[in-house]
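Task: sequence in, structure out. Protein: Mitochondrial ATP synthase subunit G protein.
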Amino acid sequence: MASKLQQLQSKACQATQFLSKHGTTYYKQMLEQNKQFIQEPPTVEKCNELSKQLFYTRLASVPGRYESFWKEVDYVKHLWKNRQELKVEDAGIAALFGMECFAWYCAGEIVGRGFTFTGYYV
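Result:
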């Protein structure tokens, strides 16, 4: 156990040394590559303005999302009415989607419990 701890400390020390040598170069390179996204002057007021723009832009997109949601619901209702004509491929896609939703739910539960698997018997 002590050897594992010493190995971990050694790796952490190597990573720290690498970052101290190459961190500023990477930082400057990243800023240079993405300079078209940087707002000038970089002030608190500008950041507050941008956050408000993002918030109200997202808020303005709600009616379009609402409309799209109800179109999807109508499509599902139409499929359910005509389920006799449903193809195997469509049923398979729906089943996979349901399984994916369940998997994301389980993953969220695990993350919410702090990555513990208590309560599940696998």
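The two ends are 28 Å apart (CA to CA).
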